Task: structure prediction
Amino acid sequence: MKIGYLGPESSFTHTAAVNAFPSEYLVPYRSIPACIKAVEFHEVDLAIVPIENTLEGSVNTTVDYLFHQSTIPVGAEIVLPIYQQLMVSKENKERWEEVTKILSHPQALAQSQEFIRQYFPNADLEQTPSTAYAASFVSEHPQEKIAAIAPRASAEKYDLEIVKENIQDIASNHTRFWIIGKDEAHLPYLPVEREQMSIAITMPSNMPGSLYKALSAFSWREINLSKIESRPLKTSLGEYFFLIDLVVDKPLELIEFALEEIRLLGGEVKIFGKYGIHTIYGV
Result:
């Protein structure tokens, strides 16, 4: 079996992956679309991609690709606590406050805004494909006054010095990762905490109160929603689809009836998957 993930090694996605699968199964890819395409082209059996962060919300690249360009099902979800570290080369350990550029993935930079504003208000911020890539770059350029924001594992792998720990804006920072490729993905090392279903609905644009009518299909059946978010349909201004997470604590028939009611109203429904949620602790 092969499992694709957003690499390189020591990225947050890699941390989620090694807690779910044997390391010899894992294959790194440089971008989220590359991970998804690897499943589509049968290069790997499954892929692990980030879908949402506590601070920054949905990972739009994942959501939009899976909605617009893919029919790959979601088979499981992993929730990982996120701790961001500021790291520099060993040569810059004593003069880390002189850093003029900070590199990291866009999500990590956004999750550490307050820290950057306090300590490095004039530093250039450079986005990289992953946090691990940023750490690797800093390691390869030890004389430059640059730093990376990345997980602790990146400092260990690339022999960097952590000069400020846990710099994320809030302590309870978590990222959700979807395992895609099968309707159900078995993670024997991680127990299932609860079940959820993720769908996308698109309602007729000329129907007054269309979203209210769609949500009523869940409301009167007492189906709990844990998330609802709009995303552009990329057709014209004002056209959206709605990403919805449903708590699966009722008979599936009730959910199926609700989805059929939405279709009868003229809506379109795309089911990403019904899956178990697994939380990783102590990393």
Observations:
- The chain has a mean pLDDT of 92.
- The two ends are 25 Å apart (CA to CA).
- The domain at 3-82+173-180 is CATH 3.40.190.10 (D-Maltodextrin-Binding Protein; domain 2).
- The chain has nine helices and 15 strands.
